[in-house]
Structure formats: C-alpha cells, structure tokens
Amino acid sequence: MEDGMIDVGDRPNIGVLGKYNIVDGLENKFNVCFVENRTHAATDWQAANPLMRCLPNFMLQLTFIIMFTRVFMIILKPIRQPRFVSEVLAGVVLGPSLLTREAWIATYVHPFEGALLLETMGSLGVTFYMFLVGLEMDLTPIRKMGKTASCVAIAGIILPGCVGMILYQLVRNERPDAPKEGGFFWAIALTVTSFSDLARILSKLKLMSTDLGKMAMTSAVLTDFVSWILLVATVAIVNGHGNFLRIIPTLIFMVICWFVIRPIIFWMIKRINAGREESSMEVQYNEKHVGFILTGVLLCGLVTELCGVHPMFGAFMFGLMIPSSEVGIKIMDKIEDFVVGILLPPVFLVAGLRTNVAFIAAGFRYSLVATVMVVASLIKILSTLLVCLYSKCSFRDSLALGVLMNTKGVIAIIVLHEGRNVKGFDQQTYTWMVIAMLIMTGLVGPVVSFTHKSARHLKHYHRMNLERSKPDTELRVLACLHSSRNLAGLINLLHLSNGTRKSPIVVFAVYLVELTGRASAMLIFHDKSNMNDIAGCGNSSRERLEAEHIVHAFESLQNDNRAIAVYPLTAVSPFSTMHEDVRNFAIDKNVAVILLPFHKKPNGIGGWVDESLEHKKVSQHLLANAPCSIAILVDRGLTRHLPLDFEHDSIREIRVAMLFFEGADDREALAYAWRMAGNPGVALTVVRFVPGKDMLETVVDDAEAGAEAEAEANFNDDPAA
C-alpha cells in the first residue's frame, strides 16, 4: 500500500466503512487503513483536488485556526481574556462541536487522512514550545520562596490532585468501563498552573511587580515543576502497562542532563563571553550557536521518546539547562513567533477535533456533569483562598491569588493530550476537562482586573506626600534612573535629605531599562542577585554592567549612612508602559515622592540638548498620572560640590535656596527643603514671593533663570509638576 497504509499482515478484516478498511488490532483495538492513490489530471494542478493532499490540507487547516483565533482575540479583548481562551474556542468551533458537523467541512477541511500530519506538526510545536517554557523558567525563586508561597504551592498540588481523583471515580461509578488511568491525568490537569501564561496575564494587568504577582509567579514555578515530574512518571508508567521500572531511563536522562550536559553548556557560554571580553567586543551569538541549541532540543526530544515519554519532556529539560543570557534571547528572537504562531495552533485544532460539546452529557446525569465541572473549576481557587486566609492575608488578595493560581494554558492542554493519547480519556471526559479549563482561565482576567482596580481606587484615598508626612516617620522615595549619568547627583541629593534614626529614608532605586527582543512584554523587578535577568529580557550586556554599577553606588550610600535603607531594583519594560509600572510600584510601596532625572543633558556650552524623547514621554505620563509627589532633578553642579565617598571626605557647607511662590507644589517643595535643613551640612534660605504694590527687585543669575524657564517649558507647564 501507499503512504497512508499500515502493514496489518494476516489480521482479520472487520469491514469497510466508505473508503476506509477496518482491520482487527491487538488489545481490543482496531486499525483504520486507507489507500492513497497518486492521481494526476490534465490540468494546471498536479493533483485532481489539491485539498485532498496532506500538505495543502494542512495549510488550509492552519489558515482557519489562525483566522478564527484572531477573530476571537478581537471579540474577547474587552473582557481581558488571554490568548489561550481564544485559541481553544477557535479549535472547538472548527471541530465536531460546530463547523465539522457539516459534511463538506469534514470532507475537505478535516479529512481523516490529514489527521496524521496535523498531529505530527502539533507534536513538533509542543516540543519546541516546551523548550521555550524551560528557557523562560527560573528555578532560583524556589530556594528563596516564603512560607506563604510554599504553602500555596503545596496546597495547590495536593488538594486539587486528590479532588481530581475523586471526581474521576464518580465518573467511573457511572461508567465502569472508563479507563482507570484517567484519574491521574485529571489530577495533574487540575494541579497545573501555566507558568508562561500566568506571566503574560500578570504583565498585561500590570501586577508583575506587586507582592501578589511575585507570590503567584513563585508558587507557579514550584507547582509547574512538580506537575511535570508527576506527568513524566504517569506517562512512563502507563506506557509501561503499570511497570514502575519504565521511569528509570527517564530519571537517568534527567540526572545526566542536569549534572553533565548543563555544566558543559555553562562552560561553553562562559568561554564565549570570556573571548569577547578579551577582544573588547560585546557578546554576539551567531547562527552557529543557535543551530547548535536547536539541534540539542531535537536530540533531547529523541532520547526521551526512546525512554518511553513524549519528546517535549526532553526539550523542556534542555530549556531549563540554558542560563538566562544573550544566547537564550537570540533563540527566543529566532523561533518564538514561529513556534507560537505556526507550530502551536495545530495543538488547539487537535484539541477542538477531540472535543464534542453535543455529547457532553450523553449517558450521564446532568447533575453529575455540572458538579464535576464546577468543582474542578473552583477547587484550586478554594485551596489557595483557605491557605492565604490562614496566613492572615486579606480576602481580596486571597481571592485574586486563588484565581491567578487557577490559570490554565498550553501546558494543561498538553496534559489532556497525553491522557487522550494513552487512552486515559474518552472523548466525553476529555470534553469535560476542556470546558473546565476554559472556565478556569476565563475567570482570571475579569476577576483579578476587578479586584486590582478596586484596590487601586482604595489606595488613591491614602495618597502619600511630604507635606502630610509626620516628622518622626520614615520617608519612602522612589528614585528612577535611565542611565548612570544622573547617578552621582541623585545619590548626593539623597544623602543631603537628612535621614535620621527617628525619620529614616527608604529608597527604592529603580534602573529603568527598555524591554527589547521579546514578543511578549514582561516586566521584571529584581535585586542585585539577579542581574542576568536583564540579559534575559533581550538587552545587551551594557545594561547589565550599568545596573551593577548603579546597585554598587546605592549600596555604598547605604553603608555610609545607616539611616538610609536602599532597595536597588531594575525595571525592564517597554517605554509605552514604563510609566504605569513605575506608578503601580509607587502605589504598592506607599512612596511619598518620586525622583525623576531631567530628560535633557548639558551640551557643554551652557545649553541643554534632548537625551531621549522616550524618557521625556515617560516623565510626562508620570506627571499626568501622579500617584504621589514628583520631583524633577536638574543637576547643575551638585555632583561637583559633594564627594561621593562620604565616609572619608568632609562635607563643606551646602547652601540651598528655596523660591516659594504659593500653591500645593511649592508647599511640597518647602517640606522637602525643610527636611534638608535638618542636615548639619546644609544652610537653607527661603525666599517668599508675595503679591503687593511695592515690587522687590531681586538679582537672579540669567543662566539659572533660563534653565528654570526651559525646564518648565519642556514639561508643558503641567500643574502636577
């Protein structure tokens, strides 16, 4: 026989169904065979009907699934639905639940002959997607996670897993012939929290930098990692027909990857970086390095396939072994769009073809179906809610975290696929779980958006500023930097701000870096121990070195002045949303004042030139939506008058002038100047301008006046300034 034929030997023929030959197989299974004749017509087409060929048919299917996904994304965007929901809905609509019920669509769009290529491409897409997931995942937070995050992750694994087993047992009570292995896959599917999809949801909702977002991400990493271990073990044991020894080859491969291959990869990357540093060149990874990594993905996938599990497990392990560096970003730039946009959609089309909503309750009581789907959808929310409430978290944050931890995504669909492939599900129970996944993920955006928005509104009533601050309370300052040019002036200003034991200064020093090189916008706040994460967001080593320099300078400030506590951070986000990230962080940390550098720099001849139009826009947006007081630092010599080493150099007296006119802005500036006056090295002079008939003539330096006027004009006379 030709391409689609299977060698069935002397097995008995059961019958013929249309053009398909049904042949008895092994273990109560049967094989469906078909003869694929290569026919040609005397036309411009090589085949009589090109849609009946596998590759053109696959292209047609791919076009449909991408088109329907885009349509659903547009429709569902107002209610904040993630891409995953649109992709699953597109697959369900194209499947037997709706469109494939039409005979011509089943014949020309989804013929039986095209299933092999569709599933093969989907399997390849899953393999490379899981490599990208491993590339993005960082297991370091697991070692640093707090007690609450650990309890949330553990409860999210144990309770949903047990409930999943119980729910499947209820199904087996109604249908005893249901495969017993399905309970394990139900348990894993309810346990999973899609790390990558959760990161994108948090990024869109601007929650990545909040305590809620950090706890959700940390818990999701541990939950995902444990879920993958359980899935690998389950698939290996099921494929081995209950033989637990079948998992040993996979475990050996994982050990070799982590303790042999991983150090080799680290050594190779370190050697490349060292060679570039010796030649004073920035690290550039070429096509040879990318090709080597992609070949490693396929080889690891092949090894795990030989071990009896899906190739995606090998690809995932290989992704985990690659450090967050320029090579990882180079790979993301090369293949992420292709994998997510072309190779992954067939996975959702296969899921849709395996889902049939029309028979959702056939042979079952409607009450059982409703109970299973509702409990499955809510159990993880409930488990997280209980743990958070026990840990004294607010109900609002507990509910939001529970919904976030219930985020399902591509990984959950992969778990269901594996369960279906090993006959752990039938079509009906598979449909139940797909619908439950839609409900779980569909709730995330609206619920978290509502609670987050409400929390923001509540915090606006407790807006912080200097004028309202009590004298003996800490001063919280958010100091922003786009580069190290304003670093010295900013540090000197903070040193002069008179931090004392009774009124310490808490400084959140944020280095603002533009996000580049990634298709999905991500905001990452991290401390000095995670400097490599900057490179992990598509930025060059220059930003990483500059971040290290900024962190070191602020640490020196903290060491020199015990009344100043510094938390150096790096915010990596696109310029279009950078102001929102800074604003949200200021609200979450109850910051009283935000220090921004002036967007212009001296030109050396007494004038100013624009350093970056994007920096100006960030400042303007912050001024227009100020969550607290905002100060613009125009450094015209503070750096030259103060030493950077306060411990070994004496500070000469600094004379500070405050020009007071009237209004809330001047009162806020006066409050800051009055705080500075408490510093023994500061002499404050306040000049108050009052309206009257007798004009007081004041001699003002022309250059200073021009700079003030130009700075005011550049910010469009914004009243928030």
TrEMBL record:
Q: Which PANTHER family match?
A: CATION/H + ANTIPORTER, CATION_H(+) ANTIPORTER 15-LIKE
Q: Where are the transmembrane segments?
A: 58-76, 88-109, 115-137, 149-171, 183-203, 215-238, 244-269, 290-306, 338-362, 368-391, 398-417, 429-450
For this chain, the family text in UniProt reads:
Belongs to the monovalent cation:proton antiporter 2 (CPA2) transporter (TC 2.A.37) family. CHX (TC 2.A.37.4) subfamily.
Can you say where in the cell this protein is located? Membrane
List the Pfam families hit by this protein, alphabetically: CHX17_2nd, CHX17_C, Na_H_Exchanger
GO MF terms, alphabetically ordered: antiporter activity
Full protein name: Cation/H+ exchanger domain-containing protein
